[in-house]
C-alpha cells in the first residue's frame, strides 16, 4: 500500500557512509553549499486521524540529494548540521518552504482549511536564533491560520533550559503556532515539566509503536495515552507500519497516526496526487 503511495524510504537504499574524519569534514563542507546548489528538498509525510484515516496534516522532512553520494539521510546530516550551525539556515529553509506549500494546498485543495504542517526545530534554532521573528514572518507572509503550523521539538532540547524554553513556547503559541513534543518516551520524560511546558501534542516515538512490540510496550503506550489525555494533550503515534498497529492505537484512544501504513515521506507533487485521490473517494462515497 505504501509503495503504491510512492514516497521514499531512504534507509533501505541509504549509501554506507564511511566514518573517518576526512569524510566527515567533506560532508560538512558539502553541507555548506547544499542549499545554494539546490540539493535540499522538503518532503512531506501524511498524518491521519486514526478513527477515520483522513489525512489532516503532514510532517515536513528534509532530503539531501548529494551529487556523489546520492540521497543522504537526515539522521546522518542533521547532527553534522547542528554541530556547525548550518541547521539554523536549513531550518529556516524548511520552515519557509513548508509554510508556502501548505498555504498553496489551502488555496487549491477542496476543504483543506484544517490541514496543518509540522516542522522539526533543533535546539540551535530555539536557543540561538531569532526563531520568534522567523515564525511570525512566515505565518503572516503566507497568511496561515492558527494551528496550521506545528513545531516539533524533542524533550532533551526543552529540558536543556526548561524556564527559557517555556517562555519561548508561550510566545510561539501566541503567534499562532502549536507545539509538539517529538520522539516522546525516548528521553528523560520529566513528567512534572510536561505539565509546566505549554505543549499541545505528544508525538509518541516509533519504538513504542512499530509492530513486533512486547506486552510491556503495550502497557507503556497505554499509560502514555492516559497521561496525555488527562493533561489534555493531543496524541500522534509515529511509525505505524501495519493495520494491526493502527487498530491498536485507535483502540488506545490515540488521535493521530503517522507511518508507512498511511504513506512514506514524499514530494509535494506526490502529496497532491494523494489528496486528489482522497478527495475523489470522498466525492464518490
Ligand atoms: P523525526 O522528526 O522523528 O521524523 C520521523 C522519522 O521517522 C522520519 O525519518 C520518517 O521518515 C521516519 N518514519 C516515518 N514513518 C515511519 C515508519 O512507519 N517506519 C519507520 N521505520 N520510520 C518511519 P527521516 O525523514 O529519516 O528523519 C529522521 C530525523 O531527522 C527526524 O526524526 C528528525 O529528527 C530529523 N530531521 C528531518 N528533517 C529535519 C528538519 O527539517 N529539521 C531538523 N532539525 N531535523 C530534521
Ligand atoms: Mg519530527
Ligand atoms: Mg519523531
Ligand atoms: Mg524519531
TrEMBL record:
The gene is gmr_3. Residues 24-279 form the EAL domain. This is Cyclic di-GMP phosphodiesterase Gmr.
